[in-house]
């Protein structure tokens, strides 16, 4: 098979994998929004705390579950998301090949561990890329700017990544996006997304979600030196993922702050509420960066004091974010 790269394809450049992947697909149909706007319209702001037997420390995530962001984003914009899953490697490849040859980019959910361009590979099956090219042995993908944006990846690696099992894994999920006749105007979409995200945050689905999850993290943190078998490595990895990969750190709070600030230019009512909430999420982002820094120090020095300090800050973050979301719920 000769190589097929979608003509005139322009990758979306950004810091978060799902907004980059879905942003690339939206850009291909003429919708080019800022990354904070994509995140906010996707109702992406949340938190999750999970104790998983497969991980050395609890998993913490600062956003909604994988693909929920894309689903909400497409619904709020009024575009059509065509998502499929399969347990067949043959079917998954044929579908991918057929769609790319139809000059339509494809989003994939996969495990980042198998992507050989990651300098520090780690298992995370909630990773996303966009595909814009293919041949019999390779796939051309779009990833975050931290990972170099575009790469040619061996087919074998892509298939391993798509069919990996573990927490957050999907059955080789792929999706495409098309326009519809019922595109929503941006101000209406923004207002709906803000209210929906606030409602979800304030009524967590389980005790490890949203502000309840942040409080569980606060309780857990002082115990991390006892839980971990290799504190210097495990705590450093957690801090790195929080700040660089955005799993639970300041990235998503900064996104949401910037989304709210950008939204002010599209709203005719409730601007004071949104402005106050933006300030609070800015403060939350600053605090999350401090928490990551303290976790890093605790691992390096093997001291519990930084974890206790981080625990106190997490309680403050939970209160701050609840206050901000209560404001936004009245928009």
From TrEMBL:
<dbReference type="Pfam" id="PF16169">
    <property type="entry name" value="DUF4872"/>
</dbReference>
<feature type="domain" description="DUF4872">
    <location>
        <begin position="158"/>
        <end position="328"/>
    </location>
</feature>
<feature type="domain" description="Butirosin biosynthesis protein H N-terminal">
    <location>
        <begin position="16"/>
        <end position="144"/>
    </location>
</feature>
<dbReference type="InterPro" id="IPR026935">
    <property type="entry name" value="BtrH_N"/>
</dbReference>
<protein>
    <submittedName>
        <fullName>DUF4872 domain-containing protein</fullName>
    </submittedName>
</protein>
<dbReference type="Pfam" id="PF14399">
    <property type="entry name" value="BtrH_N"/>
</dbReference>
<dbReference type="InterPro" id="IPR032369">
    <property type="entry name" value="DUF4872"/>
</dbReference>
